[in-house]
Amino acid sequence: xxxxxxxxxxxxxxxxxxxxxxxxxxxxxxxxxxxxxxxxxxxxxxxxxxxxxxxxxxxxxxxxxxxxxxxxxxxxxxxxxxxxxxxxxxxxxxxxxxxxxxxxxxxxxxxxxxxxxxxxxxxxxxxxxxxxxxxxxxxxxxxxxxxxxxxxxxxxxxxxxxxxxxxxxxxxxxxxxxxxxxxxxxxxxxxxxxxxxxxxxxxxxxxxxxxxxxxxxxxxxxxxxxxxxxxxxxxxxxxxxxxxxxxxxxxxxxxxxxxxxxxxxxxxxxxxxxxxxxxxxxxxxxxxxxxxxxxxxxxxxxxxxxxxxxxxxxxxxxxxxxxx
Length: 324
What we know:
Distance between the termini: 20 Å
Structural class: mainly alpha
Strand content: under 5%
Oligomer: single chain
């Protein structure tokens, strides 16, 4: 058994038993949010670690959240069916943006700017369709739990946080599995070659556009599912919290801070960012508007310059040197 397995299996067992240990509602909520953001950050890192830096993943996050809620509120379509529509919409959006970019070699800073504009277009579209979406005021999914009930699979609404804990836990583990599959696939090797020298990679038979597009659509689909989970768990969404530029940059920051080149790096980033935001909320509150974004920006610069491998990646390097 490897060292990772010896450490990981007991931690996973402890995580599975956590809701049964009476840890309280607030700590359980923090664990749910940490795993949910870990799922979303891992989805972004599938692209980011392979040279495709997207600053607009809030677009896919917002599509997932709003499509499911709108279909449920206005047409009575159950969220599980709405998730399929949201996934297809996000995959189509990723294709419409990704294919021309990869086909005409819009890479690097230009690709990042295109994705940044995409997030803003989605946000403005949500605000503009205020009769359907509620505009900047946001919207709440219609109640789906009858009086006396605590759960509704049809409406994907659960009053008990324990249910959400295990749902999000399964999705988080699934994201780690997808990460490992991509990491061990030929696609990763192809994309690494493309990121270093695209012409050379194409000359040896690598389909550049198809390789990039496949990972981009997979990342968009997973982020969209994260938006669905967020909307159904929080039971309130608005354009700024699910599709604004701030949420897109938060996704980037979380993945980079934790270490986007390590399997659990984005999850570590999610825990770090969640603890930071909760600490600021308790210590400062809402007295200084924009303080959290200022600190996030300063920390992002720090991590890029001094800790490019993130918290977990830097620690693993230190541990390897110490052990060696």
